[in-house]
Amino acid sequence: MENTPKDLSEILKEATKEVHTQAENVEFMRNFQKGQVTREGFKLVMASLYHIYAALEEEIESNKQNPVYAPLYFPEELHRKAALEQDMAFWYGPHWQETIPYTPATQHYVRRLHEVGHTHPELLVAHTYTRYLGDLSGGQVLKKIAQKSLALPGSGEGLAFFTFPNIDNPTKFKQLYRARMNTLEMTPEVKHRVTEEAKTAFLLNIELFEELQGLLIQDHKGQIPSQMEWLRQRSGSLVQDTTPEEIPRGKPRISTSSSQAPLLRWVLTLSFLMATVAVGIYAM
Ligand code: HEM
User: Fold this and answer.
1) For this UniProt entry, which segments traverse the membrane (predicted)?
2) Closest Cα to atom 28, ligand 1: which residue?
3) Cβ within 8 Å of residue 219, ≥6 positions away
4) What total of structural domains would you count in the chain?
5) Residue 280 falls within a domain, yes or no?
6) CATH number at residue 228
7) Cα(32) to centroid of ligand 1, in Å?
8) Tens digits of residue pLDDT in 209-235
9) Helix 17-24, helix 188-220: angle, nearest 10
10) 102 CA to centre of ligand 1 in angstroms
């Protein structure tokens, strides 16, 4: 196989087939596809995406004239940071910059993006391929699922990330992007490292989804372990919800409201018990 020269776009598609299947099948993504996405889960993943795209696009800007990346520079068509800023304001309110969570797996992903941008810019293509072609492929389906499951308005508010207003035909754009990838001059050694980096990029996404799923389970049990205090400190609670109340539709799922404030539930239950005992004592 090493003797057959192939286009980078083909190599990457083939090399990431297995990790792509793995990514589709992590619990968080499986649930998402079944429409079992909660507001808290959605907010978490969107906040992570904000940090990831902010880092990715910062590194893209630093390397936009570097020949190892320049042919792939499509800020108007692809860049997501501004869209995610709108989404953050919708989901977390005007003070989103101080309140959005920044999970360890997100930090890990962001660290790698900066490392690549600063030290190995020839690998940046692996990350832009993994994210942008992925967004252009599955994004529209995920948008519809989110819209339905979270009962969001048809106007697309809160879902700017999924909309590419400057791309009329995603299939054609993906073709153009692949053609541009294939113009990058690369030695076989660099091609190999780019391929490995693309697999790493998928694994960073998988690690993130697994982490978020774990956080959601912990929060539903009302248990945020001490090593996750950073989350409470940053956002008050995992599920601090500043968006207007909406009536959930769609398939039955774990109710967000029942899980919204485990601490509050505890305090209320305790207060009720104390009041009952006090009335009992008074009545004696
Ligand atoms: C719910 C999970 C997912 C579904 C249902 C899904 C679905 C798809 C579909 C239908 C395609 C088009 C395949 C084709 O044109 O031949 C695709 C392509 C792609 N997806 Fe996903 N995907 C998912 C998750 C992910 C994740 C998590 C990533 C990475 C972060 C990703 C990255 C990609 C990439 C890079 C491509 C382009 C492949 C290529 O043409 O070279 N996908 N996906």
Assistant:
1) 263-283
2) 134
3) 40, 237, 238, 239, 259, 262
4) 1
5) no
6) 1.20.910.10
7) 14
8) 999 999 998 877 766 554 455 564 454
9) 10
10) 25
